[in-house]
Amino acid sequence: MLTVKAPAKINLTLEVLGERPDGFHNIRSVIQTIDLGDSLGFSLSDKIEVTSLNPDFDPEKSLVAKAAARLQQVKGCSEGARIEVEKNIPFASGLGGDSSDAAAVLLGLNQLWPPELKPVQLVDLATRLGSDIPFFLYGGTALAEGRGEKVAPLPSLSQSWVVLLVPPLPGVAGKTKQLYSKLKPSHYTNGEITDAMVVGLTRGEVSPSMLFNTFENVAYRFFPKLKVYKEHFLKLGAENVHLAGSGPTLFSMLEDRSQAEELYTRCRDQKMHCYLAATLSSLDGL
Description:
Layout: E1 2-19, E2 25-45, E3 48-51, H1 63-75, E4 80-86, H2 97-112, H3 119-129, H4 133-138, E5 141-146, E6 150-153, E7 161-165, H5 175-182, H6 192-203, E8 212-213, H7 216-222, H8 226-235, E9 242-243, E10 250-254, H9 257-269, E11 274-278
Parallel strand pairs: 1-8, 3-4
Antiparallel strand pairs: 1-2, 2-4, 2-5, 5-6, 7-10, 7-11, 9-10
Helix pairs in contact: 1-2
């Protein structure tokens, strides 16, 4: 069986530059994969079949089957595949789990089904499936622009440790779209925050104080009790707490592993849903 890892991500910066004529928004973001991730196994079959031992995983709502069917169509392939999804990334958390799974499907089935598509063809297919998916074909540290589909690899972030806090909040349908709709023109920025992060990565001079996510302007009113969880996270010793993507996951990034482990332990002892992860420098993607 062919196995492909599907890592979670955090946004080191996430700026919204403004609304586009097509109703989407232009963004400028530095995205970073972490070693919390799903795992997808692939084997040939006579049809596309998606399975998971996780009872909360719904293939009908996931991009996994859609990505497989689209790739099968593009390749003109008559073969199917059995796709086994091991879920570790929490659902609807802002960590990009579904998009990462879809990218893993493209990478895995591109190897399993001939003919093998060129990288530029995979990126084009990923773009049509979802704005976040192209990034996961690359992984590591990258700059995302446009709707998020324009991706340029960046120098790797020096390994850092990330403590993730996942508040037990009810899921919200169309969460990301709703957050975008609540942004005001005063929340739009010109990309300079992301530019500073890119320069810092080039020089190897990045600090947690450089992190930024414009959704934090509206998320604490949008998600009930999210502010309470942030305050508790801070009381436990977290610093520079930020929203992961469109949330509701919160994270604190630390340069010292022992400090990260201590923070994670304090959160876990408080029965909080938390993870300890490390940043990734590269992936076996494109």
